[in-house]
Design a protein that fits this description.
This protein is 83% helix and 0% strand. It contains 3 helices and no strands. Helix 1 packs antiparallel against helix 2 and helix 2 packs antiparallel against helix 3 (61-85). It has one domain.
Length: 87
C-alpha cells in the first residue's frame, strides 16, 4: 500500500473511531465540540505520523509532524462542521 492510500484509509478509520469513542453522546456545547475536535486531531495526527515515518523513514520528523498536524486539523475541522450541521 502506498503512502497516499494509507493516509486516506487511516483518516477515514480514525474519523469513525474517534466519533465512536468521543463524539457519540456530544451535545451542542461549544466547549465540548472544541475538546472533541482537539482529541480527534491529536488521535489522527499520531496515526499519520507513525504511518508516514514507517513508509518514508528518510523524511525528517519535524516535516512529517507539521504536515500531519495541518492535515489532521483541517480534516477534523471539516468533519466536525459536517457532523454538527446535521439535525
Amino acid at each position: 500500500m502506498n503512502l497516499g492510500t494509507g493516509v486516506l484509509l487511516i483518516t477515514l478509520a480514525s474519523m469513525l473511531l474517534t466519533w465512536l469513542m468521543f463524539g457519540v453522546g456530544i451535545d451542542n456545547s461549544r466547549k465540548k465540540q472544541i475538546i472533541y475536535w482537539l482529541k480527534s486531531t491529536v488521535f489522527l495526527w499520531a496515526a499519520l505520523v507513525l504511518w508516514a515515518l514507517y513508509k518514508e523513514p528518510e523524511i525528517s520528523f519535524v516535516i512529517v509532524g507539521g504536515v500531519s498536524l495541518v492535515f489532521s486539523a483541517l480534516a477534523n475541522l471539516l468533519r466536525s462542521g459536517w457532523v454538527f450541521m446535521l439535525p
